[in-house]
Specification:
Radius of gyration: 12 Å
Shape: globular
Order of helices and strands: HHHEEH
Strand order of the largest sheet: 1-2
Number of helices: 4
CATH topology: Multidrug-efflux Transporter Regulator, Chain: A, Domain 2
Helix content: 40-55%
Number of strands: 2
Largest sheet: 2 strands, antiparallel
CATH class: Mainly Alpha
Number of domains: 1
């Protein structure tokens, strides 16, 4: 992935597509502090590293 894409802030819609959950769920996660994001006016913006960290913490190993 090009460096400029990694540095760009992601919208709730983009994060929802990356994580496979709905936009309202992304907003709730951000409001609860479970997903690190910055509030810009009415909108949230997320860094790609914060989304990657959230996904890593959220993954659960399958029972063997």
């Amino acid at each position: 992935m090009p460096e400029n894409v990694k540095e760009r802030k992601l919208t709730t819609t983009h994060v929802a597509k990356l994580t496979g959950v709905s936009v309202p769920t992304i907003r709730r996660l951000a409001e609860r502090g479970e997903l690190a994001g910055a509030r810009v006016g009415r909108w949230y913006r997320f860094e790609r590293t914060a989304v990657d960290d959230f996904l890593a913490r959220s993954e659960r190993p399958l029972a063997a």
